[in-house]
Amino acid sequence: MAPPKLRDVEAGQDAVIAVAPELRFLLHPRLRQLPGIPVRLDGTSTLLHLVESLGIPRTEIGGFAIAGRAAAPGLVPRGGERVRVDPVPRPQPAAGEGFLLDVGLGSLARALRVLGIDARYRNDAEDAALVAAATLTGRVLLTQDRGLLRRRSLARGALVRGQGRDAQLQDVLERFAPELRPWTRCPACNGAVAAVPKRDVAPDLPAGTRRSYEEFSRCSDCGKVYWHGAHAVPLCALVDTAREVVGRSRRAPPDGTGRSGGRTTRSTAGP
């Protein structure tokens, strides 16, 4: 996105947009260090439209203020006004119906499932289908596509920050501080995982596994079998870290930054 041309503020024609530091990474690099960005008013563009035109998706905006008073997103600003744009406070209320993840976030989806978080994912879903599914099911759409988050039909969404699974997972956990129920969802398909007698799964187990382990779980949807195996160590570490991150997020006072100063089952597949 090309940056708007910078110019001196013209009285009666411009407003100044002051973007909170937590959101400035979304701006064009030339604008990130500015305490205020002058924008030309046309008499019809709302606060929400003006800020989105700078590259900040609506899902990342926590609120607007003019002269210290809250302003509605649909307000049309007047010339000479200075508008403050705040980020969504963290932690944000978690999704009651879970999450829907965009293409490219498969590793994040599997990690969320290990933590017992309802996370649906398809690697072939198109944008329109994703938005429709998220809205229909009441899920929060997680994506790194800013354009997707600007769609008016999207009810709930969030920009996933960071590169790589661990950074992305920390961002989601800090933002939503969701309830964790490790080992209750299938990392492969998101189905419910429950304990099952060894005799029921014995025919499907490798001989060495039958000899070495006694406790097993199985996914009610895809049938995949899990057990407490040698590969559980990194997943246990993931769970421990997640609990620490969520605990810090819940204890921290909401300030928009999101930064505050069990048993396991395992199969050959995992996040």
Condensed summary:
This protein is α/β, with parallel strands linked by helices and 271 residues long.
Q: Any overview of this molecule?
A:
With about 270 residues, the chain is an alpha/beta fold. It has 2 domains: about 15-85, Ubiquitin-like (UB roll) (Roll), CATH 3.10.20.30; about 100-250, no CATH class. About 25% of the residues lie in helices and about 20% in strands. The two termini are about 35 Å apart.
What features would you highlight for this structure?
271 residues, alpha/beta, Ubiquitin-like (UB roll), four-stranded parallel β-sheet, 8 helices
Write the layout of secondary structure elements.
Layout: E1 14-19, E2 37-40, H1 47-52, E3 61-66, E4 69-71, E5 82-87, E6 99-101, H2 106-114, E7 119-121, H3 127-137, E8 140-143, H4 146-149, E9 157-159, H5 165-176, E10 193-196, H6 198-201, H7 207-212, E11 216-219, E12 225-227, H8 232-251
Parallel strand pairs: 1-5, 6-7, 6-8, 8-9
Antiparallel strand pairs: 1-2, 3-4, 3-5, 10-11, 11-12
Helix pairs in contact: 2-5, 5-8
> Helical proportion?
25-40%
Briefly note the structural class of the backbone. alpha/beta
Q: What is the typical, i.e. mean, pLDDT?
A: 88
- Count of structural domains: 2
